[in-house]
Design brief:
Blueprint (H helix, E strand, L loop, with lengths): L1 H20 L1 H5 L8 H18 L6 H24 L8 H26 L1
Helix pairs in contact: 1-3, 1-5, 3-4, 4-5
Length: 118
């Protein structure tokens, strides 16, 4: 479990970096009435910071808690995307595939959180 617990924050960091490299992909998930570019970059920055915080022992548990909460917060975005005529993630098929992956990410984040509480 220890190795898997260090892979998850790497995914979070890479996701955060992706907000800067492919902003259009993430902005499609953000409602139009919100400042899409600002929210995209702030969320990417937060993901990078939270992922990096996992590698610093004093902030590891807090980071694991935030990662778990982020995975839960992201779930409705993927549920909504499944029901869109034109999903932000690209296609209906990809949206259907991506939704169960979010549940796996929530479970993984929960396991990492429990691992760090012990």
């Amino acid at each position: 479990m220890k190795q898997l617990s260090f892979i998850l924050p790497v995914f979070i960091i890479l996701g955060g970096v992706s907000h800067f490299l492919q902003p259009e992909m993430f902005q499609a998930f953000i409602p139009e009435f919100l400042p899409r570019q600002f929210i995209n970059y702030i969320s990417g920055f937060i993901e990078i910071i939270v992922g990096l915080a996992y590698f610093y022992k004093p902030t590891r548990l807090l980071s694991a808690q935030v990662i778990f909460l982020m995975m839960i917060v992201f779930l409705p975005l993927h549920v909504i995307d499944v029901f869109k005529e034109f999903p932000a993630i690209g296609s209906k098929i990809v949206a259907y595939i991506r939704l169960p992956i979010q549940f796996l990410l929530i479970y993984w984040a929960w396991k990492v959180l429990k691992f760090n509480k012990n």
